[in-house]
């Protein structure tokens, strides 16, 4: 049975996918993952999830964010200067996401 | 962990669902998150009619997207609250419907005209975003993670609101006058967004001590006024003489508390203020009307889990 | 149609007067349907059964608004602007089917899903019939619109399967089908007999309305019957006329400008702020699509 492994570098970070292990059950999967995926990279926590329990939708099946113009969802579209630093920070993140979407 | 240990360890994103946290922490965090999540829902409730009333197709699209985001924020925040193990999402949504769930003062008032929309979409959202940016450092990791995504989206909301305000204040004389009237009405409520001055706030000390909050109400109110007061003036809005706002030499502001209606504020805080009561009930009505759908989904879930499927014996 | 094969219209300049009228009618059908359907969908925002379904239904509404925007943009090439396309247009100049203007009874999520399903299948079939339209600005936009329709169809069918698996749900779905089916038939009514003939003759749309309707009816009834929902039969006259017998259609067709009273009150609500502010323009915040 295959278990997908998600690692968190340090407390407060997100768990991100880092690989998988073959194991007969959850306990063994954790033991294997601890060494296979946690022995060198900084690790605060690991999650293991049975591969078959993971659902997936990808760009073959889905048009994430749609195919028509949805620029109204992005701060950059609005013709005003950001009012505050947190608005500016958000606009930067949104614009970056919009740019990456455009490249995809 | 006991309370003292929790206080000692408290730092940004320190605690996650696997930590053994004292009940006081779990309850305080739940109260904060539930309030925040409820506010997203009731804010969306207020703004929804303006999807229909928006005076251009693209404004309509933007309003729909904004209300959609707010419900999305509610979804994130209820999850972050649920993970404390105190209340389920269903319980929180039911409490909101029954008038037991608390939410932001501004969302207890009716929102009737298009010219009022930037009062929420710019000023209240701007105030909320100021506060939310600081909550990225909350000690409850799921709260901070929810804030990452919420703040990512919120820049659109504030700019959308400001764009509407700018358009109205550069519009016809009639539009400008109507907008000024709306501002006069909303300004005191907006000033109350951050609550009374710190010494009157009952839950603050503990929430700050365990790192759930990182800034005081006064600090947040100051930061908000520093940015948004000049913005209001820039668009030609006149700041009402009352409530009096004194600017100190160090760039901070004092709002004269006696000029604000705290009786109304605390009536609202108890969910006893009339327009707010109607809004709570309006939402309850809508929620009840689709209970049959949730029941059908629950049934499906039970079948999927192998519980009560008629085919289970096959 | 042989004549249509070698004729293609790159822009409005290439159209004669009859063709101009036909293209505009075709665009009004498309745009008005999307606008009014989306307007009704947005009623579910903050009222949907769960937070997740709220967010996804809102998305579908925004998709449809985006499609309306795309089609209205083409109409601007004919000298229209948004104020006369939407905000200052008379209610009886709108060409949408009366299916999309019907109000939702409170909590009738089955209506929303059934309506979405009946509409989305029709739209899917119709868009495919436009993929080879002789009018390029339409042809060029079909792909973008179709790109978002797969999700809509999948969403509606998934919901229908789940609702129909539940006793109360199935009853509500059946009620909605019984009530909405006649209105759905108006999707395939012409705005005007002659104009419709031009649409087909000049290859603006690859199939005529009867062909579209038959394909739609077969697809819709196959699926709905598979989940235990009865669908009214289509009693076509022997001659297989353009029209189905009038008693299968509702009193108001929409396509010809004759709407139910619900439409006028909906349009009043939509234009309330525009009128209150005394506006004579509609704000654009996005760049025009190429």
UniProtKB/TrEMBL annotation, chain A:
This is Ring-1,2-phenylacetyl-CoA epoxidase subunit PaaB. Residues 89-104 have a biased composition (Basic and acidic residues). Pfam families: PaaB. It comes from the Archaea. Residues 83-104 are annotated as: Disordered.
TrEMBL record, chain B:
Pfam families: PaaA_PaaC. Residues 1-22 are annotated as: Disordered. InterPro entries: Aromatic_CoA_ox/epox, Ferritin-like, Ferritin-like_SF, PaaA, PaaA_PaaC. One of its GO terms (biological process) is phenylacetate catabolic process. GO terms for cellular component: cytosol. GO terms for molecular function: phenylacetyl-CoA 1,2-epoxidase activity. PANTHER family: 1,2-PHENYLACETYL-COA EPOXIDASE, SUBUNIT A, PHENYLACETIC ACID DEGRADATION PROTEIN PAA. This is Ring-1,2-phenylacetyl-CoA epoxidase subunit PaaA.
From TrEMBL, chain C:
It comes from the Archaea. Coiled coil: none annotated. SUPFAM superfamilies: Ferritin-like (SSF47240). GO terms for biological process: phenylacetate catabolic process. InterPro entries: Aromatic_CoA_ox/epox, Ferritin-like, Ferritin-like_SF, PaaA_PaaC, PaaC. GO terms for cellular component: cytosol. This is Ring-1,2-phenylacetyl-CoA epoxidase subunit PaaC.
């Amino acid at each position: 049975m295959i278990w997908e492994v998600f690692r968190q570098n340090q407390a407060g970070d997100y768990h991100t996918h880092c690989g998988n292990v073959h194991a007969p059950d959850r306990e063994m999967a954790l033991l294997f993952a601890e060494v296979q995926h946690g022995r060198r990279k900084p690790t605060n926590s690991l999650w293991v999830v049975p591969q078959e329990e993971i659902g997936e939708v990808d760009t073959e099946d889905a048009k994430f964010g749609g195919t028509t113009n949805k620029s109204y969802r992005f701060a950059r579209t609005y013709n005003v200067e950001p009012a505050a630093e947190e608005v500016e920070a958000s606009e930067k993140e949104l614009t970056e996401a919009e740019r990456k979407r455009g490249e995809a | 962990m006991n309370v003292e240990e929790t206080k000692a360890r408290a730092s940004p994103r320190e605690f996650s669902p696997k930590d053994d946290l004292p009940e006081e922490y779990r309850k305080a965090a739940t109260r904060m998150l539930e309030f925040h999540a409820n506010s997203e829902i009731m804010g969306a409730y207020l703004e929804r009619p303006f999807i229909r009333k928006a005076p251009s197709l693209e404004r309509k699209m933007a309003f729909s997207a904004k209300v959609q985001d707010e419900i999305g924020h509610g979804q994130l925040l209820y999850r972050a609250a649920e993970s404390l193990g105190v209340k389920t999402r269903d319980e929180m949504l039911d409490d909101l419907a029954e008038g037991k769930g608390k939410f932001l003062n501004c969302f207890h008032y009716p929102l009737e005209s298009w010219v009022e929309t930037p009062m929420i979409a710019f000023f209240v959202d701007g105030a909320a975003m100021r506060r939310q940016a600081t909550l990225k450092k909350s000690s409850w990791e799921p709260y901070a993670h929810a804030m990452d995504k919420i703040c990512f989206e919120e820049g659109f909301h504030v700019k959308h609101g400001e764009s509407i305000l700018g358009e109205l204040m550069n519009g016809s004389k009639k539009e400008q006058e109507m907008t000024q009237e709306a501002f006069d009405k909303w300004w005191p409520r907006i000033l109350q967004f951050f609550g009374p001055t710190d010494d009157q706030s009952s839950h603050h000390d503990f929430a700050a001590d365990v790192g759930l909050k990182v800034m005081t109400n006064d600090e947040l109110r100051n930061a908000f006024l520093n940015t948004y007061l000049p913005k209001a003036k820039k668009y030609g809005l006149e700041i009402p003489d009352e409530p009096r706002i004194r600017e100190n030499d160090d760039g901070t502001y004092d709002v004269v508390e006696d000029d604000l209606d705290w009786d109304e504020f605390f009536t609202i805080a108890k969910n006893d203020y009339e327009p707010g009561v109607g809004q709570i009930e309006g939402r309850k009505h809508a929620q009840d009307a689709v209970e049959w759908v949730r029941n059908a989904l629950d049934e499906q879930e039970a079948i999927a889990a192998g519980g009560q499927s008629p085919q289970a014996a096959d | 149609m042989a004549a249509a094969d070698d004729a293609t219209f790159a822009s409005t300049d290439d159209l004669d007067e009859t063709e101009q009228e036909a293209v505009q009618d075709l665009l009004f059908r498309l745009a008005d349907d999307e606008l009014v359907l989306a307007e009704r969908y947005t009623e579910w925002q903050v009222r949907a059964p769960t937070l997740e379904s709220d967010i996804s239904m809102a998305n579908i509404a925004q998709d449809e608004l985006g499609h309306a925007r795309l089609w209205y943009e083409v109409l601007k090439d004919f000298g229209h602007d948004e104020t006369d396309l939407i905000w200052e247009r008379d209610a009886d100049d709108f060409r949408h089917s009366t299916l999309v203007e019907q109000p939702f009874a409170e909590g009738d999520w089955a209506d929303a899903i059934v309506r979405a399903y009946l509409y989305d299948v029709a739209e899917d079939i119709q868009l495919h019939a436009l993929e080879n339209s002789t009018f390029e600005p339409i042809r060029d936009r079909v792909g973008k619109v179709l790109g978002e329709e797969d999700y809509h169809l999948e969403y509606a069918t998934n919901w229908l399967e789940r609702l129909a698996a539940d006793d109360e749900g199935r009853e509500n779905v059946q009620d909605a089908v019984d009530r909405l089916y006649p209105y759905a038939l108006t999707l395939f009514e012409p705005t005007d007999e002659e104009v419709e003939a031009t649409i087909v003759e000049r290859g603006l749309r690859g199939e005529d309305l009867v062909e579209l309707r038959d394909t739609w009816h077969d697809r819709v009834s196959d699926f709905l019957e598979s989940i235990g929902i009865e669908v009214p039969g289509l009693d076509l006259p022997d001659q297989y006329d353009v029209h189905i017998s009038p008693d299968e259609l509702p009193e108001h067709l929409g396509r010809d400008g004759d709407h139910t009273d619900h439409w006028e009150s909906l349009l009043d609500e939509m234009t309330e702020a525009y009128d209150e502010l005394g506006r004579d323009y509609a704000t654009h915040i996005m760049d025009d699509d190429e």
